[in-house]
Amino acid sequence: MSRSEERGDGRRHSGEATRQQRAECRRARAWIEDEASGALGAREVALLLRHAESCADCNARRGRSGRLVRDLALTFASVPAMDVRRRVMEQVLAEAQAASRRGRVGWRPFWIGMAASFSTVCLLALQARRAAAALPGEALAESHLLLRLGFGGWTALSSTVAALSTLALGLVDAAVHILISTATSVFAARHAALWLVALIFVASAVPVVRVLRPGRHVSPLRMLMAAWIVLHLGAGVFAAQDVPSPPDPPGIGEGRGDPGRGSIQGEITIDLHDDGVEGIDPDDPEAHITGQVKVNVVQNVTIEEGEVHNDDLVVVGGTAVIRGEVRGDVVVVGGKLDLNGRVKGSAVAFMTDTTIGDEARVGGDLVHLGGLFEASPEAKVGGETFHADLPGLAFGVGAREVADGAFHVVYLIRLLMFAILFWTMLIIVCVAPGRITSIGEALGHHWGRAIMLGLLAYAATCVLGFIFLILSLLLIGLPLLAMLGFAWLVVEAMGLAAILWLLGDRVVRNLFRSELAPALAFLVGFAIYLPTQMIPFHWGVPWMVMAILGGALHICATVLAVGLTLATQFENSRLGFRKSTPPPPPPSPAG
Amino acid sequence: MATHGSGEPTESDARIIERILAGETALYEQLVRRYQRLVASVAYKMGIRDADLEDMVSEVLIKAYRNLHRYRPEHAFSTWLYRLTSNRVLDELRARRRGGRSEPLDERHADPGPPTDCAVEAADRAQVVATALGLLPDEYRAPLVLLHMEGRKVSEIAYVLGLPEGTVKTRLARGRERLRQILERRFPEYTA
Fold it and tell me: For chain B, what are the domain ranges?
């Protein structure tokens, strides 16, 4: 009905009907629409009919509406016939066959992986907490921070690996939860106040999934995932927040060799047939005389002036300040030695910054290997003085710095080797993509065999490498050694490229529902794998753990890769390794 | 068991889907046979024509297979297919408009002026309504097609289109009103 007709209707109504009638007409028009939509109840239909009998306009309107509805129902009475069965089934069966080739991964490894991840996190949390509780003074202060940061990093790493594994299993929803838990764990590990933020993040997991996947209800799986996240988070908070607060860092004079928390105190019974020290009477009750061999790890020790330590003193990774008397030997490894007192035995400093003051008196030998060495000409040494700068340590650096340097060198070597491996893999993927994808697809069926063969190959290569190394003394071993290294590189690169292709392909396929070219899928897999190999070496338990885990992961991946390549015989189809997938049943004839 | 089409006893959709998900992929053909006409019907009535229609039907049915694990039996399989089809068709129509591959369907832009006298004589009433329907905006055409041509209930249309029931009712009423206006302008003989 046009607007002019509407206005005409309105005028007629206003002229003919009362206000009540107009209201009835408005209600009747709404009913007419509902009736056309098939959404009018029987009672309303009866009322509408009664009104239409008394109102010609509404009756006409109802008639027009009914006619339009009838015409609409008759519209497109004949739809073009078509049969798309063959076309659809060809595609469907091809996809099913491809999925079958890729192999189905069940739920069991998923749950096992999650349980393993959570158990590892808990164990690490407990270990880290115990280690932190054992560290005194400034070491605790440092470790407290490192613990928090490191634990957050570790949680992120483990959760990311878990998430990527989950993606590979095709559970995008679960992966979303895990990624959220990663963020929450990192937050929670950084500061207690963010615990609330973490809770909000967890609580937002379900809405996030609802937004990402509208129309989906929260399944039991998601609830289990949420429970897992809470447990995961709890472990993070437990480790990060329940660590005892560090005391103020002690001054040099406050260390006093306190046999407090964390000092590894070995008590050795020795015969004290000492004739005393000049100026100090062992029987003097005012003199501070201790009678234990002290082995101090990551702890500062100070022997004050007037104080006598009646045994050997060993400090590892800490600072030894000697102003008083030590009646045994002094050994400092990887720390600092400030000697301006008396040592009856020998003083040995290994990779230690050493300062020998004017008042220093050493009854035995003074041995210094690596680190800074400053000795006053006024100092007196009864035996020999041996001082040597180890190669590479003569730059005025201390033990920790030296170790850091060594870490950097090892790290760079590792990166270099990884770069060589990457380029080898990339070349192989570009040259023989079909072979790489075939090897990757075989992983689902033959992972057990691949692991076994990989371990055997690893052991055999180690033995051969050792033999060739010996033979290289006769020169004949050198080419053999080079050939062995090259063969290992190719075999490892083929297998690892196949595994990384599989990882990248599954992640992209499950996340974006698309398929990448083999080289691109490999690059995606490599990008996922790369961060686990980029963890730098630093001091601190969490960093060490993460670096070791990264190395262990690479070793495991290498074993699997080598085994997979050997198990598939380089995917040489003539050898007939691959278990052929039975062809899908042909679609039944159309009809 | 139920009978379907030829009268032979057939498995329920839910049972077939269960078996397909368990690995009996070939059974999907039964679903294709049952519902290809339904998908084609909806796509055709919503404006997909000629060669595009077969592509659209195939695409929807393949998409349905890929997403079969997401189907929940709270709704009939046919309703779920309606949802997939209408979403895909609406996407296609929007893409065509963006790409300038189709004439604007809005009546205000499509109205070329008074029709010739023979326009109505040459077409029956259904043909006239079908032509007018093609000039409706997608948002109004989709619920009208589902309600009046496919016989779906308002609640089902709400699920299919992902809209509240109230919105669906409003669009139905406005759609009919717009359709009447188009018929009055372009085919005054129809309303005579």
Answer: 1-102, 105-192
